[in-house]
Amino acid sequence: MASSLLPVLESLPLPPPAVDSGTDEAARLRDSHGRAITDLRLSVTDRCNYRCVYCRTGNEGAQFSELPLTDYARMLRLFVSLGIEKVRFTGGEPLLRQGLLELVRETARLRSPFTDAPLDLALTTNGHLLAPLARPLREAGLSRVTVSMDAVDPATFARITRVPNGFARVQEGIRAAQEAGLGPVKLNCVLLRGFNDDQIEAFADFSRREGVIVRFIEFMPLEEDRAWTPATVVPLAEIVARLNAVRPLVALPALHASETARRFTFDDGLGEIGIIAPVSQPFCGHCSRVRLTADGMVRTCLFSQSDHDLAGRMRRGEDDAELRRWIRRTIQLKEARHHIGEPGFQQPSRSMVHIGG
After folding, report:
1. What is the per-residue DSSP string for 227-278?
2. Model pLDDT, residue 277
3. C-beta of residue 341 within 8 angstroms of C-beta of residue 279
4. CB atoms inside a 10 Å sphere around CB 121
C-alpha cells in the first residue's frame, strides 16, 4: 500500500479566494454551451484482467499507462476547486491499481468550495477483485460501486469476458459490496444483438431477486476491433417492450438533471432497471461529465478526436492557478454532442479501455 498522500495534498497551494476559484455560481466550471461540469471520471489504469469482446481485441493491446498517485491527487484537487462534486474511479480495472484505497481515502477528505459538502465518490469495476476490497473501500470513503456485468448465465459471461469461472467471483463481489454499505449496487450490462441480448429477462429476475439496480447500455462504437454497426445495437424501445412482457414497467423520475439512465421499476415495486440509450436517444444536451485518462489527458467527450495534456503541463511546472485557467479554457472546447450514426461519423481517437469506463 502506498504511503499516505495527505502530506502531499496539504503541501499544495490552496485555490485563491478571488476570481480564479471563487465560490459564486458564475465561477463554477461550465462549457461554452452553458452546461455545468460537476462529474469527473478518473481512470487510474488502463490495465484490465478481463478481455471483454466488445472492448478489447483478442491480443494484448493495452498501452498500460499510469501516473503516480500523487499526480492524480493533484488533478482531483484542481477539478474539485472548480466545482466537481462527483468523482468516479475507473480503468481499465481500477482494483488492479496498488494504492487505490489511499487515493480514495485522501479524495474523501476534499470538499466542494461551493457547497462545503463532501464529494460523491463512486467506482466502476468488473467485480472480479471486489469481495475482499469492498469493506476497505467503504471505510476509505467510497459512496457507491457499479459492477460491469454482461450476463447472468455463467457460460455466456465466460464467453464475453474470455475469463473462465469469473461469474462466481463477481457475484461474490456484488454481495460483499451490498454488505459493506456500497449500495444500492448498480450492474452495467452492455447489450450486443445476437450475443447477450437473450439475457434481458434474466437480468430483470436478477434485479428483483438480488436487490440490485440493473442498467442496460446500448452498445457504442468504442471497442478496439472497430466492429460496431447499427445492427448490433439493442435500442431502448426494444428493451422496454421485452421487460414489459415480464411484468408491467412503471417509470421512475430522474434523480437529477444530468441523469443518463431512464429509470423503471415493475408494477409490484420489486427491482429497478435503468436504460442508458446514447445511440437511440442521446442525452448530450445535459452532459455534466469530463474525463481524465490514466496518462493524464483531459477528454471532454467520450467521442472526442483529441486529448488535452494536463499531465504534461504539470510536468513542465505550471502552478495551480495556471492549470485552473487552462482547465477552464479546455472545458470551453467540450463538444455539443456526439454524432453516432450520422454521415461522416468518426470513432474516437482511443478505445474505451484507454479512455476510462
Report:
1. ---GGG---HHHHHHHHHHHS-EEEE--SSTT--EEEEEETTS--EEEEE-T
2. 80
3. yes
4. 20
Q: Read off the pLDDT of each residue in 189-217 and give the average, rounded to a whole number.
A: 94
CA distance linking residue 268 with residue 163, whole number of Å:
36
Confidence of residue 343 (pLDDT cuts 50, 70, 90): low
Which residue type is seen at 263?
Answer: R
143-196 pLDDT, tens digit each: 999 999 999 999 999 999 999 989 999 999 999 999 999 989 999 999 989 889
d(CA 93, CA 44): 8
DSSP symbol at 5: S
Q: How many residues are there in the chain? A: 357
pLDDT digits (tens, 9 = 90+) for 257-307: 666 788 999 999 999 999 988 766 655 657 888 999 999 999 988 777 789
**Cell 462466481 found at:** 168
Q: Computed from CA positions of residues 119, 218, 277, 174, in that sequence, does the dihedral angle turn out positive or negative? A: negative
- Residue 194's nearest CA partner among 165, 156, 232 is 232
Question: How far apart are alpha carbons 100 and 2 in whole angstroms?
Answer: 8
Question: Is beta strand 249-252 parallel, antiparallel or unpaired with respect to 120-125?
Answer: unpaired
Residue 53 pLDDT: 79
d(CA 239, CA 277): 10
Domains parsed from the chain with CATH numbers: 6-338+345-355 (3.20.20.70)
Radius of gyration of the chain, Cα coordinates, nearest whole angstrom: 20
Rounded to 10°, the helix 200-210/236-246 angle is: 60
Are 280 and 240 spatial neighbours (Cβ–Cβ below 8 Å)? Answer: no
Mean pLDDT of the chain: 85
**Residue 111 grid coordinates:** 470538499
